[in-house]
Amino acid sequence: MERTGKVFRIVAFWGLLVVSVIYLVPLVLVLVNSFKSNLFITNTPFAWPNADNSVGIANYSDGLVRTGFLSALGYSAFITVASVIVIVVVTSMTAWYIARVKSRFTSLLYYLFVFSMIVPFQMVMFTMSKVANVTHLDNPVGIVFLYTGFGAGLSVFIFVGFIRSIPIELEEAAMIDGASPWKVFFSVIFPVLRPTAITIAVLNAMWIWNDYLLPNLVIGSSYKTIPIAVQQYLTGSYGQKDMGAFMAMLVLSIIPIIAFYLAGQRHIIKGVTAGAVKG
After folding, report:
1. Which of 189, 165, 211, 144 is nearest to 197 (CA)?
2. Does residue 3 fall inside a structural domain?
3. CB–CB of 36/54 below 8 Å?
4. For the chain, how many structural domains are there in total?
5. pLDDT tens-digit profile of 241-274?
6. Ranges of residues in the chain whose predicted pLDDT is under 50
7. Domain of 185: which CATH number?
8. What is the 3-state secondary structure (H, E, C) of 69-96?
């Protein structure tokens, strides 16, 4: 039995190692080709940069200027950070209400949030873009509310599952001491939700930062986020792309979100497991 377990661990290790390599290869190729000229990217995409094919940091400097990368970075950062903060705060409060107040209304509310998770974005995108235009949400501030709506389903679902596992005696003790509902939530409940909150923040940040379709539909003509700027400014009149600058801007665009993921990834499994199992 012990020998079988050891063999299983060895097989699992090498299997996961192979999967990790498969996932890392595209990232390495993007990084390697970001230092090469377009001709060599097309003809020898797997070759390492050398004296013949390398252009140094020219792709980076050219891409930064042509895409207006710093402006796009500012819009992407604002939209992502603001959306994640609103999603985490609003959905955690909503989930606390749903988990603690037992009624038909809260049950209906909960299932509406769950149902929203399975509605394809394509079903509502044209109606949503029209409503956003009429209600003047077609700007970096307004799109935060749209992201909150789209991110609320999964976030509430995970939060509710975790909150139901928190002993209600913690809240009752705080109320006996005279704490208001606001203080109970932010002083007692929210600190306990930290692993789940970080999980939701990471998942939503990765989605919002990399999203192309929603910003393109709602604010693409005036406020360009990184995916839109890279797509529009590095594409030629006949659909040809400056692949060198394109790769360089991809490298710069994934650095912030990878750093954020690495900072919070140790909480992801713990938070998702708590939300999915204990609910």
Report:
1. 189
2. no
3. yes
4. 1
5. 778 888 888 899 999 988 888 887 776 666 555 5
6. 275-279
7. 1.10.3720.10
8. HHHHHHHHHHHHHHHHHHHHHHHHHHHH
